[in-house]
Write a structure and sequence with these properties.
single chain; alpha/beta; eight-stranded parallel β-barrel; six-stranded antiparallel sheet; about 20% strand; globular
Amino acid sequence: MTDVLTETELLAPAGNTEKMLTAFHFGADAVYLAGQSFGLRAYAGNFTDEQMAEAVRYAHSIGKKVYVTINIFAFNSDFDGLADYLKRVESAGADAVLVTDVGVFDFVRKNTSLKIHISTQANTTNKYAVKFWYEHGAERVVLARELSLDDIAEIHSFVPECQLETFVHGAMCIGYSGRCLMSNYLTGRDGNRGQCVQACRWEWEINEIGDKNRKLRLTEDGRGTYIFNSKDLNMIKHLDELKKAGVYSFKIEGRMKSAFYVATVVNAYRRALNGENTDILNGELEKASHRTYTTGFFLDEQQRQYYPFSKAVEQSKFIAKVLDWQDGVATIEQRNKFVSGQTLEILSSGESQCKTFVADDIRDADGNPVEVANVVQQRLTVKCPYPLTAGDILRLPVVTGSSEN
C-alpha cells in the first residue's frame, strides 16, 4: 500500500473566471468549477466550454489544477447530453470531475479517461465506502462533513492509497452532507440539482402537532428564531490535525461568494499552511463576510452548530481590485464607495503583514480628480507608497460586531 499523503492541496471555489484568477493569485493549488450543466451551483457565473478550456490552459501554465463539478442527482433525461458534455470537459483537459450519482460515476468511468473525485453529497461516512469507491476507480473521496478527526484517521489508515478531501471553511448545509429537500418542497427549486434558495436561512416558527404532552421549545430573541441555520465552518487553527488524520485536500466552500471573499479566505489558509500565525490569520477571516464560526463535527460531534442570527457580518469592505502599479501610483478597478482621505488596507499575495495607506489624489481615466469614488468598476488611479501586484485587493475597515470562535 502507498500512502498518498506526502503533501497537501489548498482547493478553492471558482464561480467565474475572476474568482478563479483571484484564487490562484492568493495561493490556491487548485480550483473547482462548473460548466453550464450538471453542477450544483446553477446560479453561479459558471464557465462556458471555451472559458473552461481557457481556465484549464491558464491553470496548467502556472502548475495548478482544475476540477469540474458534475455532481447533480441525475435523472434518466440527464444522460442524454452527458456523453457530449464529458467529451468537451475531457478535451478541455480538466484534471478531474466531481460526481455524486453512482450512475454518473459508472458512465464517466466507462466512457472517458477522466479522473474521478466523489462529491461530499455522496455521503461517504465510513472506511468501507471509501475503499469501494477507490477500488472502482475513484482517485479521491470528498468526505461527508459529519465526520470527526478520529473517523478520518481510521479511514486513512484503512485506505491510505485514496486521496481524502474535506471542507475546512465556509457555509454549512443543515441537510445531511448537503442532501436537502427543503428548497424543492417550498419553491420547486431543487438544491440537489443546483438551484437551492437557502430556505434554511429564512426566519422560521415551528409548531409541533399531534402530541399535546410534548412541546418543542425554541430560543428566540428580538430578531427571530433561526433554528435551521448553521454556523460557518472555520478550521484554520486545526490544519495540522487534519493533515495528521490523513486529509490531502483542504477545500474552501463558496462558489457563490465574492472575489473579495475568495481572496481573503484563500490568502489566510495559504499562509496558515505555510506556517504563519493562525491567531493573526483568524483575524483576517473575520474581515470577510461570514456567520458565527464553528469547527463543525471535526473536534466534537455534539458541538452546537446552530446560532440565533442569520445575517452575515464582515469587518472589511471590498473597495477595489489592483490592475497595475507604477512609480507609486496604483491603477485600480473600483468595487465599493470610498472617498479621498480614507485609510485603505492592502490584501496582497506577496505580503504577510497588512499594510495601510491614505487614499489621496484619486483620479479617473481622464486624469480628473475624484473626491468620492462611487461608480462600480470604474477605472481609477490612486497614490500608494507600497508596491502592488495585479490582482491584489484594497479594502476599507468597517465597524461590526465580533463573532464567536
